[in-house]
# Entry
Amino acid sequence: MFHLGEQGQKQEGDAAHARLGGVDRQRVCQGAHTYAPLGETMYSAAEAIPGEGVSKPRSRLWTVVSAMAVLLIAGGAGVAWFLGGSSQGALSPPDGPWPEQRRFMVLQCSVEGLTPKTQPAVEKLLRSVPEIESLTAYSKRQAEGAPPEMSNVCGVQAHFVGMAREASDIPKISKELAKSPVPVNLVRIPYNFWTGKADVQVVLTVAGSPIFEVENVEARIATEKDREVIVEKILQLVDVDKIYYEDSAFATKVLTSYCPDGLCSFTPGPVDQEAIYVKTDSPGAVETLKKALDHTPGVDYVFPVW
# Structure
């Protein structure tokens, strides 16, 4: 398995975490993806049937009636209460759709990386592999302006981004790279499960969260009450379509889908992470929630969902 060095780890940082959405930050930086490193035994809780949400909740009337979803009608707007999960006021994660993971990167994770002399030889080999549907070469200069999800996991270096014909073809492509005249590695570039399902990710504090490494008197492991307060604040601040609560079991399931074969820049394993995902059409929702939730007990970070 290909693991990133310390330099690559520090360069990825928060951007890698946000790109993955639901991926444990420390694991992503230690070695990918993404997202977010994964034990099969943890899936039962994650695979529970999600509650049905109500579009555009605006009312602030919160009334517990039973242990089932209750629809409140107030001023012509609905509020969805989901009481079957671990966080009141939030839905269980959606059960799909699961994005097809066909995208990959080929790179030489070294001090210099691929050069104008070595990159053409690797490109010639890659374009001869029938399992590759499309391939884009990035020079070092082009890599400087690449979007976050396409950035080189080892820093600003020349690399290739490709699309396999089938997700199952990626291990075959990796084996073909053994024929390369220049040593290179292949890593998957995951498609974020939460893209299109949410716009904002609120990462909750758990044991080992980076926030505990700095002085922050408000920092503590998120409690059930903390989650309720966070959800209440979100509903007050932005126009919400759906709010989801992701526990560690589901985060683990998501990360497993990113790396089914070990060809990733992270070490797969159970994820100790909880998050709230918000689907909203409010302009500037990410910045609004970042400012409002800063120093809120139970909140680690707020990220956009890419």
Remarks:
- The first helix runs from residue 6 to 20.
- Residues 1-87 have pLDDT under 50 and may be disordered.
